[in-house]
Amino acid sequence: EDKVVQSPLSLVVHEGDTVTLNCSYEVTNFRSLLWYKQEKKAPTFLFMLTSSGIEKKSGRLSSILDKKELSSILNITATQTGDSAIYLCAVGGNYGGSQGNLIFGKGTKLSVKP
Amino acid sequence: DGGITQSPKYLFRKEGQNVTLSCEQNLNHDAMYWYRQDPGQGLRLIYYSQIVNDFQKGDIAEGYSVSREKKESFPLTVTSAQKNPTAFYLCASCDRGRTGELFFGEGSRLTVL
To answer: What angle do CA B101, B106, B109 make, to 5 degrees?
Structure first.
């Protein structure tokens, strides 16, 4: 059965800390791994990773994929209270001919204290 | 502004009633999706549609129905057959050229009384 596992499920840090969120997967016909940030309601897209070892960066956030280990990490440096959110990892495969479907992990709830 | 609009944002329903959640997008995306999110759970796929007049069941389709008569619209009906309908429902769309990069609506929270 295809699955995506995120760890930790919740995390509390203080402003300025650096955090690493983990995502591992077992998916048939892997196509891509995506990270989303969900603050209140609508998840917003952060990164899409398809190639192993190539880091993607956006400001203080970065992510990298390791296809050998079937995993990805999301790093956030110099955390701010505005980083508090649920971070969702999702993996896209080829399911029944549909190329757009994703399998989501349960998410990591990050709380950044001032 | 382009985006996805879901309505209503909050909905209360009595047991045994069907309710329909609206999802409209003006992004010109071909693919649209409905997900359910429960506390401490990831998003689970209910139904998806890759093209007008066609849709497919996701992992938890039982007790739900959809239609896709227009490219812009993908309404979800939660029927009385859904045993545990209280949840947060998210609609999303995707450009065929950007597989997996979903754009989400603000969600609809359904509570069954």
So the answer is: 125
